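User: I'll paste a sequence; please echo it back and then give the predicted structure.

Assistant: Echoing your sequence first, then the prediction.
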Amino acid sequence: MEHSGQKYIPGDPWFICDRCGFKTRHSQGRKTWDGLYVCSKDWEPKHAQLNPPPVIPNEGKPFKNARPEPEDEFADTGQDVWDS
């Protein structure tokens, strides 16, 4: 007797999705990056922001072509700005 279309398939057992809790065939499941075994509807790739690039400190290393900030230069027009 068959129940709601669930028949025996050799080598393809049922499993319960770790996210939604629905019963799905093992061949339709996938393992996520955090170790869960989920159905194809609940699978998503690991987001790129979870693996940020490493920050390499530059302490003790000189920068190439380093130049100090120049002094501010003011042009003297010979006129007083406030006397207009």
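The first strand starts at residue 14 and ends at 16. The beta strands are 14-16, 23-25, 29-31, 37-39.
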